[in-house]
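Box 3.1. Reading complex inputs
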Amino acid sequence: MYELLEFSSRGVLLGVTYGLLAFPISLLFIATDTVDLAVGAYAVLAGAVAMFVGGSVNPAVGILTGILVGVLASAAIGSISLMLGRRQKGDPLVLVLASFGFAIFLESVVLTLFGKDPFIRQPFTYFWNIGGIRISPQAGVNVVVGLLLIAAVYVLLYRTSWGRDVRASANNERAALLAGIPVRALRFSAFMLAGLLAGIAGVLVLYTSGMDFASGMHLTLAGFGAAIVFGLHGPLRGFFGGLAIGVVETISAGYANGGLASLVPLLFIFLVLTLGRGGRQGPAGVRA
Amino acid sequence: MTGVLSIVSNNSSAASRGQSILTCRNITARYGRIGVCHGVDLAVSAGEVVAVLGPNGAGKSSFLGSIAGLVQGDGEVIVGDRAIGQMPAFLRAKHGLAFVPEIRGNICPALSVQENLGLGLRMIDDDRDAALQRILELFPILKERLDAPAGMLSGGEQQMLAVGMAVARRPRVLILDEPTQGLAPAVYDILRATFAKFREDGLAIVVAEQNVPFAASVADRFIMLSDGQVVLSGGHDQLQKYDTILAAFLGSEESVSGTTRPSNVQ
Amino acid sequence: MISGRKLLVAALLATVSFAASSAIAQNAKPLKIGLLLSLSGPAASFGIPERDAAELIVAGLNSQGGVDGRKVELAIYDDTTNPTEAARGATKLIREDGVVAIVGASTGSGTLAAAPIAAREKIPMLAPNATISVTARESQSYPYVFRTMSNDLVNTKQLYEAAIAGGAKKVAIFYQEDAYGKDSATYVKKLAEERGAPIVDMASAPLKSIEVAAQAVKLRGSSPDAVIMQVTAPALGGAFVRAAKQVGLDVPIWGSMGLGQKSFIESSGAAGNGVRLVVFGNWDDPSPRQAKLADVMKAGGKSPQGFAELISTNGLLAIVEAARKIKGDITGPALRDELEKLCKVTTYSDGELCYSKDDHDGWSTDALTTVEIRDGAFKRVQ
């Protein structure tokens, strides 16, 4: 029983990372109706830059530079999205494919610039002992940042006119234009924000479990799983989806055997999507 | 003098009545390479209501869409003395052009009524609260539904919301595409009354309609499109006079009162 | 016959006098060798050092007059860590570049895809892979495939033997979820049962897992006195070592050869101290022979990173050694025949190379070293 508690709490801590990666995915889905498969690649890029700049200048500068580079990378795909939008109206799949290509491009950029070795930073050499469970203080940092970002994203989307305009653009582009919203510029800003969130997630992954140049797609898929499990149209759902998947994953890794353990989380996502209603039929941005 | 319910900006008050607020010259509209509207002219003065009539597929919606910048097309569009024909849709909206597309296409069903009204008010720099109050006095029913998602409103309520959003920012020109479509005749009266107020405030209104009797009851004059060209135009008298003939031609079965036969009641 | 030792010295000298003009007989036909390596994709971490070492060795040979007056030429093909590309690359290297032998591919699956083509064209492949099936006796390609390192069975057995040598009775296994991880875990399980000390628990994680604390907790539950990691990905290995530390699984951890990389040490952080590996070569604390390859690499402006440098040069030197024994035209079949006769050849690796008609593996436990992570480096354990 005690073991189950340990698995669950470790699962929550793992899930925070997934939830952080789900933020940019569901935010972009809400804002632009597309899925950006390069989100994990922004995170890896941010993490790699944070590690190398952090190593040669100082960690804080490294973190900021890393996040900034994440934003710039995301702005690049945002520009591609604008160009695509100009030529052909609306097929979201085109951007999904473009972002996939961009993810592969970023992967080789990271490989070329920063090499093949894993990127990891571990400033904490001691552990917290919470009820007999040893936890790295980094996990505490992750939880705090995760909660702050939840609050910030929620306020931004549901309590500011920027958020209202973003949701309006996703819900009815024509209506947004008629209300005088510069929809394309707004979408571009949503890409930048997604890059910011992905960059923050990347830095936290760097400080938690580390990554390597090829981790991008894995991170995207982890975030995507978290984002879809309770419905793509709310970033808060994505965060809790991440927690749920994290808990399912650690419990199955603890009790199930071998390959089955890594199948269980996928099975869980599949079951929730098939059986659950999850409000997925609703239009984007109705609820948090 | 503009009343409490004035929804038109001050510089276009009754003083400017008679002079053209919206001028459209040689408007075309196309989808890809297929042209659906060819060289249509239209001028509307302050306080004037012009009906755009025509059968299905005549190019009414494309004509209006082209003016609003939502449909590809060319031609001169002037609001006041500002040429906006080359601007993207969102900038045309900023220059005093308000458009209510078919089936209340300017509302966001997922957003609450309050948020939708917020969209309507987002281009106002001065007192937004006062502007919001004006709209709620115009359509009191919205006051009770502020927190409901717009998609949950009835068709009539949605139409009021759509019109309310369009005029919230005090445009100079209001364009409506088939405002009566799918609505109960009871709503017609509210719309008529609303148009009358707008007219007093000096708003220039263009309304495309299949429902000739409704159009005849609100419009000062009309143009009729067929195959994307103006084939007939005339004044209020002719509209009244030929009401039934036009209605038969356009396939509408209603009379002026609009009460003989409810159409597509929600 | 020139011994391997002389060859080493020659290569070393050659590299030092790198700029000196070479005196290669102009009329002799060059010895063309193909490098079919993964220079991009996930296995690039092997392919790139494999190529770098091979290029430096060849530069050294050529500046010393080549192989019996023949200049050595390399033709390089990047298989992008894709077996289909590896097969295409073999065809291209043989048909268009006219190579007489191939070193590669960087991955076992790449070699398995390319070997049938090489065998059909009668061109020997020197395979820098530990994958068992690469030199499967029943394969049609067998006559033309020669391994350049110890195979997985040898490595895994040695790892297990080393782990229990200290008296460990209750061994647990953590393995990565791929063919290598599963097969070697199963093999250790079998070895343990034969010894009458069955494995007490097993846990696994996908190759790209970022967090394996749950797996460490699971193993902790069976209170093992040693854990064997059948993992090749440094990030996953590091994650497990850190997780073990975090959840209080404080027992000796043994890792497989693939973790013998700097990045594993970095990724393990402080938790890595005391972790032991059985490796094919060690650059932090190299044996005298490996030190020579390190010198060659450094003179060429590269620093050796793992066992990749050793296994590609093993292949290259085996080809050169076989070529020296051929009097007339150097052809694929002639090379193959001579390769099969090579024995007691030394290269930069520890141990000796010995191929025969029935053994194309060539390398055994004498090539392996036990090392321990201490203060951010691998130290040899005597």
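In summary: Chain C touches chain A through 38 residues (CB under 8 Å).
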